Amino acid sequence: NYFIVLLFLISYCLLVGNKLPPDIRRYFFFYQNFHTPYSQFFDVSWSLSVEEWFYLTVPVLFFISLAVIKGQKQKVVLFWIILVILACTFFRIYRELNYSYYSDPYNWVLGICLEVITRLDSIMFGFLGVYIYYYKKNVWGKYKNPLFITGILLCISPNVYLMITGYGML
Asked: What is the reported pTM?
């Protein structure tokens, strides 16, 4: 469906005389927002790009690591979960310190929120939840309600911050 819609959008632009973005070929490889803001030609494609890169790279990392480090499945999985979450978090901090994305909400959305390399951790947090559920059932059972509330608060806190600072909702 993605490629059908992409081809439809390209055809439509050519038919009505609209200019195609110079990076149009990147859309065919889910690379339109890998490490730079994309042209917003196909707005909703940013999230699919994040998902495709995550689901193509992380299983390969898991598979190779588990083949090399035998008998340590739980530790290897936890290592990659923590590494991806920390790497993305520190990269966002690096980006902010060097490019001041937060001073302009529009650039913050394009440069932080909608890029693959700054969003891979969003899916990895789901993996962390599954890891806790699967390997630490007692923790999951004991803290499931506080963890749920924490998750909800973490989801809404950026919007609350933006409303308080006057930037509005994302």
From this structure: 0.79
Whether the Cβ atoms of residue 25 and residue 42 lie closer than 8 Å to each other: no
Cα–Cα distance, 158 to 17 (Å, whole number) = 39
Angle of CA points 92, 96, 100, to nearest 5° = 155
Smallest CA-to-CA distance from 26 within 14, 16, 12, 36 is with 36
Residue 146 vs residues 21, 35, 102, 128, 152: alpha-carbon distances, Å: 46, 34, 30, 16, 10
**Cα 122 to the chain's mean position, in Å?**
5
**Structure confidence by residue, pLDDT tens digits, 65-118:** 999 998 899 999 999 999 999 999 898 888 877 776 666 666 667 667 788 988
For the segment 9-53, what is each residue's pLDDT rounded down to a tens digit? 999 999 999 999 888 999 999 998 888 777 778 888 888 999 999
The two tokens of residue 52 are 């495709």
